[in-house]
Amino acid sequence: MTSPSQVPIPALSSRTLRWKRVVCWAAFYSASCTIAANVGPMLCESKRVGVRLPLSAYVVSTVPTSIFWLPCSWVCFRLRGEGSRKSALALAVGMGGVQFFLFGVVRSAAHAWDEKWWIQGLLLSALLAQPLMAGAAIRVYYSLPSERRDRLKLLASCSYALVLLFLLAEQIPSNSYVAGPIPRNQSAVVQRMWKINQASADYADKFGGVYPFDLAALETRGPRQQSDCRASGLLDRGFDEKKYGYRIEYKAGSRSDSATVGCAGSKTYAITARPTVLGRTGLQNFFSDESGVMRATREDRTATASDRSPQFSTHLTIVSPSHVRASAPSSMAITTFGGTRVLRVLWRFRATALENAESRAARVAGALLFALAAPVAITSVMSLLGYSEPKPSFLGIAILIAAAAVMPCLAKEKHRLSGATGSAH
Question: How far apart are CA 115 and CA 177, in angstroms?
Fold first, then answer.
């Protein structure tokens, strides 16, 4: 008598074997892309600065992302040969969903940072591989006969995927790379304008109560030259307009003589900062003057003293050419819609002995869909009234493409199971 661990694995059909190979190669490609996304930028940067990093540095860089590439490697290892393992297929489904979200976020960030074309292409191909891996894994999973602890395997894989999603949700908002260059650029330009205000105030205290005519009077001529009202050395030259994507202009008011002999300046000045490309390098135009108060506007014009104080976003912003934003209403809508389908399926198969299980599941799903309609209606009305601005989302488009690829397989399986269980389609 053979033990449970020695029970032979049933032979798979040729079509199922082909789908299993798709899962295996997609998992291998996902793991490779995750590792390449860590090692590739380091290799390019080391070549640019002319520093040769040891192999251990590249190995260490892959450790934080091992929670993604190790499971994919395990899936590929478990699916080798002619047999198949349901635990690996269940994990492939969970990892496909998590990594689709991960690669989508990182791909949007890489586009916003103008990364090299091959990095963006690698991330895009990895993004498209995830729905393929998940859909193929679902197809192979349901083509296999039932095994012991099937539910436990699914629960373990889903739990691991949920933990990864929780970790991503915790880390992404605080990640400066994912947030894109706009928050960094706007923070840098505001700090620079504060420094100009402080240097101008120090200049006025030092040279008879007038402000300089230009920024050159605040800077220094050279390390060995003595500072005066033409080059006071009160402001460093550390702001790179090309790097931070903002143009800063300093305009002095009418000429006024200083109490210091040989020095002249102005009693007023104005500082303006405009993004090089509005919506790409910055979202706000800034203004400040001798009062030290900062003003800003999101309109495509130079900010003035009549504008409001700058408003910085407190929620996660994934910057792309279309300003993709992760907003609570849209996330709630997607979650609620998905929850209706999951609860209906679980209710139906948990209560197969009840005659009215199907009608109960339909009522529960209907109630949840009505609850979903409320936030959708509210956000739509707010957009129409101008309180919020709808934005196109590349991530949303990718999700629709993934749904178009996966839903036919799910619909086919639903049709088959509906006929077997007598459930309504």
Answer: 11
Q: Is residue 112 domain-resident?
A: yes
18 and 115 part of one domain: yes
End-to-end C-alpha distance for the chain, whole angstroms = 43
The H or E element that residue 184 is part of is helix 181-206
pLDDT at 326: 36
DSSP per residue over 303-340, as a string? --TTSBPP----S-B---TT--B--HHHHHHHHHHHHH
Query: Are the C-beta atoms of 286 and 272 separated by less than 8 Å?
Result: yes
Domains in the chain, number: 2
Residue 135 has pLDDT above 80, yes or no: yes
| CA–CA separation, 357 and 200 (whole Å) | 76
pTM comes to: 0.52
The pLDDT of residue 28: 93
pLDDT tops 60 at residue 57: yes
Domain that holds residue 57: 11-177
- Burial of 414 (C-beta count, 10 Å sphere; 0-12/13-18/19+): middle
| Bigger pLDDT: 48 vs 350 | 48
Evaluate whether residue 318 is within a structural domain: no
- Report the alpha-carbon distance of residue 280 to residue 320 in Å, rounded: 7
Which of 169-183, 255-269, 273-287, 354-368 is least confident?
Answer: 354-368
The last residue of a domain, from among 242, 263, 297: 297
C-alpha span between 357 and 353 (Å, rounded): 8
Is residue 421 domain-resident?
no
The whole-angstrom separation of Cα 156 and Cα 301 is 54
| Residue 140 sits in the same domain as residue 191 | no
Please report where in the chains the tokens 């493409």 appear, as a residue. 401
Specify the higher pLDDT residue, 287 or 339. 287
Query: What are the residues facing 345 on neighbouring strands?
Result: none
For 185-246, give the secondary structure using H, E and C. HHHHHHHHHHHHHHHHHHHHHHCCCCECCCHHHCCCCCCCCCCECCECCCCCCCCCHHHHCE
Strand-pair partners of 211: 266
| Residue-wise pLDDT tens digits, 392-418 | 555 566 666 666 666 777 677 667 766
